[in-house]
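Lab notes, practical 5.
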Amino acid sequence: MSDVYLDLYPEFVLPPEERAAWIRDRKGCLVGRDLAQQYGFKVGDVLPLRGTIYPGTWEFVIRGIFDGSDSTKITRHMLFHWDYLNETLRKTAPRRADFVGVYIVGVDNIDNAAAVAANVDAVFKNSLAETLTESEQAFQLGFVAMSDQIIAAIRIVSYVVILIILAVMANTMAMSARERTSEYATLKAIGFGPPFLAVLIFGESLVICAIGGALGIAATMPAAAAFKKVVTVFPVFSVSGETLALQALCALAVALVAAIVPAVRASHIRIVEGLRSIA
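Output from the prediction step:
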């Protein structure tokens, strides 16, 4: 990494003295707070890595631990000097030295991003090293696109779970309404009409789903935090307010759909048949 990398990413916070120590040490590296906590790293530790793409054992000295500016920032990675890698490759694999795969360019105005990208690509057009300059968002989406199958699988499983919950809730409401047939018939006999019975059943369904939905929403944050620690596929993983709202809407939808059939049956029950029934 270049010494100005942190200037391009102010969301990574590092004390000035640790940054200065990293710049002075060619073998120095920086590790994120999440990574340091996971493996117990601390400043001054020697970190040996066995390379696969770049064979050999590479030794780094941890000169700093950076934090994210907020909880949504992923700090599970390590930064080190490209010069250290390149100088070693000049000795061990000269053909692979002096090559760079990705450059990160900062622009003073986001409105100039397209023009800057076009100018960069124009400079290297028809050369042996043509470039493809794009926004960082587009670059990241290229990696996210590779996880589309994972996202699709999660979405399908979510729909299946909702259908199962709906089936269980509908069965629960049907059994509850069946056991109270005589009570509904009694209510109709003393003057309560079908709308009242329907409201009664829908109210019961809403209360049950409200309790279940509240428990599910309360467990969402801890589950998401645990998922974030285990899964590193997604660069940012956090629960938005929109997700919580959708959870509440799903609970409401399940409550309403599950109560439709029992409410219709209770509304059309005959008083004589209802009083004869035994729960």
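Observations recorded by the TA: The longest helix spans residues 194-230. Residues 145 and 151 are 9 Å apart (CA to CA).
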